Structure formats: structure tokens, C-alpha cells
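so my prof wants the structure for this chain in the C-alpha cells format not the other one, which i didnt know existed until like an hour ago. anyway here's the sequence
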Amino acid sequence: MPLDVDGARRVYDRIGRLQDTQRFYEDHAVRRVIELAAFERSEAVFELGCGTGRLAADLLRSGVPTSARYLGVDVSPRMVELARRRLAPWSNRAAVELLEPPALELPGEDGSFDRFLATYVFDLLSPGDTRALIREARRLLSPEGILALVSLTDGTTPASRIISAGWNRLGSRWPALVGGCRPIELRDLIAGPEWHLQRAEVVVRFGVPSEVLVASVAPR
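here's what i got, hopefully its the right format
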């Protein structure tokens, strides 16, 4: 069962730094989406669900040009606090803001970012909240902008199918135990004419399947 934004806030306020323990399966997929979306050429990154700021720090340290600016948001006050501390060395070009539920309007002017990044976010939100945030991503991205997403997905190997099926069963009964996350299909989120799919693939790490998706803004 997916969480609403307020439910996600409660879960991740409680998790805090423990979120980073999931890196054993997340990091490989995240590195892949950063590579496919050519973040080394980015000048303005928006991250939805910045968590503890670990990924943002990696990007600012060596993944984007030194002139690039970053804005991250999260619904959890605890995560915002942790991310601001972690990103303090880049305070001249990085900011983190709290996203207040139930509002789903994201901060930023239309077309003001060239990369929109969300890793393991849409797999915990409801379909309605997800659609609203994808519309916001389209608004924030420049005409040459790129959407870069990672989520849990259905398995593609015997072991990963078992794990994703078990994750689904656990999440349907006790969503908080898995942080609200469940396997989804990211390609379903960009089925409209607003997006042009560049790449979608499934990455399996320690039996956990993740979908990596990169899409560009379609010409109006």
C-alpha cells in the first residue's frame, strides 16, 4: 500500500540516518542513472526526496561542474536537517527545503533546472501524488532538461522475482516496515506526450531489482 506525503514524512522522520543503510543495493542503480543522464554537464539540479543528502554531496563533490547549483527537497524535517548539515561545505550553491504536506507544488521557477532527480521516491508515493509531482518535474525542467529516476521494480531474474514478490506482500500488509516502498514501473509515469524516453533498464543488486529511467522533455 503506497503512502501519502504525510505518511512518508512520519516514516522518514523515524528512519533518519538509517536510510543510508540501503545503499548496498541502491548505489549501483544510482550511479547508473547519473551516468546515463550526463550529470557532468548539468548546471542546475533539482532533487526530489534528498534524504540525508548523501547523493547530493557526492554530486557536488565530483559529479557536476563546480559552477552547478543544487536544490533538494524532502517531506521529512529530520532528513532536511541531516541534508543541510551534510551540504554545508557547498552552502554557496546548494540549498535544501522542506516540502510541506499536503501541498505538492515544488519550489522553483518554470524551466529553471536542467536535471530533475528522484531516486527511490515514486515507489513509495500514491499514484495521485506521483502524477502531480511528475507534472511539477515537467514544469521545472528547461526545454533541454532531463528526468532521471530510480525505483524498486519487478524482478527480472529468478532470485529478484522472489524478492520483489516478497517485498510486495510485506508492503501490502505493513507498508511502514519497508518505508512505504513497493515495486513499480517507472515507464508508466512518462507515457504521455510530454516526455521522450531515452533509456530504461533494470539493475539487480544483491537480488533487489531497481528500474533506472532517463527521459528528456519533449518539444511542445
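also thought this was worth mentioning. The chain has six helices and seven strands.
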